[in-house]
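Hi C.,

You asked whether I'd gotten around to modeling the 285-residue construct. I have! Everything is below, sequence then structure, no commentary in between.
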Amino acid sequence: MEPNKTNPNPVVVEGGEENWASRTWALLSTLRDQSPLVQCITNFVSMDLMANTLLAAGASPAMIHSAEEIPEFTPHARALCINVGTISHDWLPAMKLAADVANKAGRPWVLDPVAAGASGFRLKACLELVGKKPTVIRGNGSEIIALSMASVGCSKGIDSSHESVDALEAAKSLALATGAVVSVSGAVDIVTDGHRVVGGHNGVAMMQKITATGCSVTALIAAFVAIDPSHPLEATASAFSIFGIAGEMGLELAKGPASLRTHLIDSLHGLDQATVLSRVKITAL
């Protein structure tokens, strides 16, 4: 886990923000060239798939969560991903410390508020982390609604009872209140900074049958934001699209969720320019 030095040069794509396919390929290509170090403080269920997603995309994962290591290690990471899936009293201080260190070092960080409304402790912890100014917040519809309303009982946890479009107004409100880009996974992946809203239309329904795919796309978002931290909305939408395309290609070879998991990782690793340029589906909403 050799620390990567930050490359301050942003990704520049001719044609402006509307040229989503070219921007997405430019980000993925740069990610592969730079192999940014992404620190993940995440849950026990998702560690394996998150790490393998980052490796397949070209990033360098570091699954470091010890509070004793964070002050020394986190400043060397290009981005930080915090996922509260199996949060405990022991892990929360390390998460908060890592967010503080990342902010002090000028590193972007991404929050995945898993099952945010499932309990008072979990919601309070998520709100405390939101107060640490994440660059991006990524959740399902129920999680984003629960965070936005800051009330228990709005979420069934990871089995979201709300579609992404149901959470659009909550996402916009949360983005405006926090300054974060807020993204909502669903049949349409919504990304907003409170003013602009874009939708990603890549992916397949069977990905919902594989545990930790949502966690893994959050890690991929962190890697993309590491490459272009000055444009977190564009980086987030591009990461969603890349992950979704890999899922589409994986399904063409899969017989079910287990084989889709394998083919998704293989497809992510093998994505080429022609495939990305022809399959990216990101639109303004």
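If it helps when you're writing up: The chain has one domain: 21-284.

Thanks,
B.
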